[in-house]
Amino acid sequence: MSAGVEEFDIVVLGLGPGGEEVAGRLAEAGLAVAGVEAGLVGGECPYWGCVPSKMMIRAADLLAEARRIPGMAGEAAVTPRWEPVARRIREEATDDWNDKVAADRFTGKGGTLVRGRGRLTGPKEVTVDGERVLRARRGVVVATGSQPSAPPVPGLAGTPFWTNHEAIEAERVPESLIILGGGAIGAELAQVFRRFGTEVTVLEAGERLLSREEPEAGDLLGKVFTAEGITVRTGTAATRVDHHGAAFTVMTENGSHRAERLLVATGRRSDLAAIGVGAAGLDESAHALDVDERMRAADGLWALGDVTGKGAFTHVSMYQARLVIADVLGEPAEPAAYHALPRVTFTDPEVGAVGLTERQATDQGMTVRTAVTDIGASARGWIHRAEGFVKLVAADGRLVGATCAGPSGGEVLGLLTLAVHARIPLAELGTMIYAYPTFHRAVEATLRELG
Ligand SMILES: Cc1cc2nc3c(=O)[nH]c(=O)nc-3n(C[C@H](O)[C@H](O)[C@H](O)COP(=O)(O)OP(=O)(O)OC[C@H]3O[C@@H](n4cnc5c(N)ncnc54)[C@H](O)[C@@H]3O)c2cc1C
Ligand SMILES: NC(=O)c1ccc[n+]([C@@H]2O[C@H](COP(=O)([O-])OP(=O)(O)OC[C@H]3O[C@@H](n4cnc5c(N)ncnc54)[C@H](O)[C@@H]3O)[C@@H](O)[C@H]2O)c1
């Protein structure tokens, strides 16, 4: 070992869900592993993402369910209080944004935790905070995730707008909130804050909410949100933002909106230049780190998670982590495949989707057949007074995509994910017995519609 240079078998840059998994498992396998983390070990998901947001959603859904009592089960007076939500997030989810448990878990497996911001300074070399040089005999795993991306709206930069961090850390709900972006984050948090009493306005530049999903999903959420008192403006881009005193003003082509808080949820980006991927011969201006089916980005360089651009979801990061671990250890593993990528937006109704949308399938030149049925028309949906739908997209006698919006839509999605993943013939799916009266029975009705 040369002076000032520390040598390891593997250096993992970024310890989000995928990076932590790779670093821990490889350390357990006996490799010398350094894990470099600039923030909290565990990354976005447990501290500012999936887990605390789903805790908020659980609370908001309880309120909504109680509000459904009149007309079905008696009377209910619901008084929302944010304090238990904020406390659960602080105490149960994030340990007050302290990662000691996760850090100890990694070092307990034999890994070396290096706190600081790392940057590739050679094909198999990472320099942390400009001074500590870590060399990796086998290679580097880049797992640096993504950061919120604010649009270049005049006036926005420099204002105290919220990203998901401030929204998750909120100790009280604002009186009023404008959300820029009606994607996964915007839609989930709009409903949470509305159900706790905030006046919420969602400004979405695209044609509808959840623009990445089937149009039926965005239309349904638009209708439900409006009925809940959320102001939804689609096809609306902000042209200017001002912040004076205690209020934000967001100007659009069709008028202006004022609120106490502004949440920017217009997507996320990975800054490849900041990670220094040019030192490994890669394009720093690219959108994402391009990886092959074994998660290799270059010789001695693997990448996983949001930074690969294959889907900004924890389950993608964990799936890719498994493939990286297998490749490093020389164990057999299937090549990466994303044809049955599932995603769930945890709104109410919950939107579960897998594989291709109708539009994506058509754009890929497939001859598709689709069918949509109303969950409210199914026995369970009618009993529950539920709203939602199942949409199936089929090509060559198999499902290539499906969406299930409704109560537990993400759970019903399990069977559809299996069908798309295993390419089960439609004829086979049609012979299955679907329990009565379940929400997933709507899948059978939709298959019948498909013919
Ligand atoms: C509000 C919200 C809700 C979400 N809900 C869900 C959900 O319900 N389900 C789901 O599947 N996904 C959800 N996601 C997405 C999910 O959180 C991410 O896809 C996931 O965390 C990505 O994991 P990752 O391994 O790529 O790394 P990340 O979690 O992004 O972590 C990367 C880590 O790398 C560190 N890092 C970055 N650069 C450096 C550097 N140069 N040096 C050292 N360390 C560095 C960062 O500090 C960070 O800790 C949500 C996201 C948000 C924001
Ligand atoms: N339940 C989940 O799994 C979950 C929840 C939250 C986030 N996530 C992940 O995090 C990612 C980031 O979430 P997100 O909601 O920030 O991004 P997103 O890409 O899902 O949605 C961003 C939305 O903002 C809109 N937009 C872009 N620029 C705009 C502008 N200037 N004005 C108004 N609208 C604008 C886009 O049209 C899009 O609809 C998601 O794509 C998802 O992968 C997942």
From TrEMBL:
Question: Record's Pfam families?
Answer: Pyr_redox_2 (PF07992), Pyr_redox_dim (PF02852)
| Residues where FAD binds | K54, G118, T144, G145, S146, D306
What Gene Ontology molecular function terms does this protein carry? Answer: flavin adenine dinucleotide binding; NAD(P)H dehydrogenase (quinone) activity
- Name the positions where NAD(+) binds: G181, G182, G183, A184, I185, G186, A187, E188, E204, G267
Q: Which residues form a coiled coil?
A: none
The beginning of the lineage is: Bacteria, Bacillati, Actinomycetota, Actinomycetes, Streptosporangiales
Q: Would the keyword Transmembrane helix be found if you checked this record's keyword annotation?
A: no
Swiss-Prot/TrEMBL cofactor(s): FAD
Q: Which UniProt keywords apply?
A: FAD, Flavoprotein, NAD, Nucleotide-binding
Domain FAD/NAD(P)-binding span(s) in chain numbering: 8-321
The residues covered by the Pyridine nucleotide-disulphide oxidoreductase dimerisation domain are: 342-444
Question: Cross-referenced InterPro entries, in alphabetical order?
Answer: FAD/NAD-bd_sf (IPR036188), FAD/NAD-binding_dom (IPR023753), FAD/NAD-linked_Rdtase_dimer_sf (IPR016156), Pyr_nuc-diS_OxRdtase (IPR001100), Pyr_nucl-diS_OxRdtase_dimer (IPR004099)
Q: How is its cofactor bound, per UniProt?
A: Binds 1 FAD per subunit.
Family listed? Belongs to the class-I pyridine nucleotide-disulfide oxidoreductase family.
Q: Does the keyword Repeat apply?
A: no
**What species is given as this protein's source?**
Sphaerisporangium rufum
Cystine connections: C45-C50
The name on file for this protein is Pyridine nucleotide-disulfide oxidoreductase
